[in-house]
């Protein structure tokens, strides 16, 4: 079996997606292991999750850096020190800069709570409700320099119910996110993805 890919997860909050990845990686046949968790917020619950799982973590507060490039460099250093090969953004509330994208070119993933290219940016669930969409969902994509614009790796749809408010819809999307992120990271880590134009092609059985 090929060596498992070392993954760094960048978080800012609760970290339920981080937890899903940690749980998936408990299976030795899963092609990735979580090597490091980096949070820009010292109080993020995701840090507790890393600690409970015995995973190394670092707090890198963005406020202590004079600009984004310097913040990015601190994150790159932490990732490199831990031999990270793939970076997963999981509720990381900062925009990732060019330096980090260059350092981990084509190996930075993000999860977004809508079917991109619909409803990018903040408050995607609220936007879908306000628009009156009947279906929304979640997307895992490679990160590029835009906001939620990179090539789509995997998506799943979630119906919008007449009775939904932002909270109820967000909860159902969140539950789907956990499975989607686990599946998308597996595809990338096992080398089943390749980019053609702006499309991600998946090799072999899914
Ligand atoms: C998720 O809804 C994800 O789509 C968005 O941020 C949220 C993170 O949730 N990017 P959690 O911290 O993983 O629970």
Descriptive account of the structure:
- The longest helix is centred in the last third of the chain and has 24 residues, at 166-189.
- Helix content is 33%, strand content 25%.
- Strand 2 (32-39), helix 2 (45-52) and strand 3 (57-59) form a beta-alpha-beta unit.
- The strands form 2 sheets. A 7-stranded mixed beta sheet has the order 3-2-1-4-5-6-7, sandwiched between helices. It has a two-stranded antiparallel ribbon with strand order 8-9.
- The chain starts with a strand and ends with a strand.
- The chain has 2 domains: 1-105, Rossmann fold; 111-206, Rossmann fold (3-Layer(aba) Sandwich).
- The mean pLDDT is 96.
- With 206 residues, the protein is α/β, with parallel strands linked by helices.
- The structure holds 5-O-phosphono-beta-D-ribofuranosylamine.
- 5-O-phosphono-beta-D-ribofuranosylamine is lined by residues 13-17, 90-91, 111-113, 174, 177.
The helix fraction, in percent, is 25-40%
Tell me the strand percentage band.
15-25%
Q: Helical element count?
A: 6
CATH fold description of the largest domain: Rossmann fold
> Mean of the pLDDT scores?
96
Largest sheet: 7 strands, mixed
């Amino acid at each position: 079996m090929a060596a498992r890919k070392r993954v760094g997860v960048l978080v800012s909050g609760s970290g339920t997606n981080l937890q899903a990845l940690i749980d998936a990686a408990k299976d030795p046949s899963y092609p990735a292991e979580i090597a490091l968790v980096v949070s820009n917020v010292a109080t993020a619950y995701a840090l507790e999750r890393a600690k409970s799982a015995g995973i190394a973590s670092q707090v890198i507060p963005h406020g202590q850096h004079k600009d984004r490039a310097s913040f990015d460099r601190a994150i790159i250093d932490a990732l490199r020190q831990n031999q990270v090969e793939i970076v997963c953004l999981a509720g990381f509330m900062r925009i990732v800069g060019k330096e980090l994208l260059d350092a981990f070119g084509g190996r930075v993933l993000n999860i977004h709570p809508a079917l991109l290219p619909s409803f990018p940016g903040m408050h995607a669930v609220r936007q879908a409700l306000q628009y009156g969409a009947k279906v929304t969902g979640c997307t895992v994509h490679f990160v590029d320099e835009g906001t939620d614009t990179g090539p789509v790796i995997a998506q799943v749809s979630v119906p919008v119910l007449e009775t939904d408010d932002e909270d109820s819809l967000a909860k159902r999307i969140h539950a789907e996110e956990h499975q989607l992120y686990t599946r998308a990271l597996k595809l990338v880590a096992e080398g089943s993805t390749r980019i053609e134009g702006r499309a991600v092609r998946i090799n072999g059985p899914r």
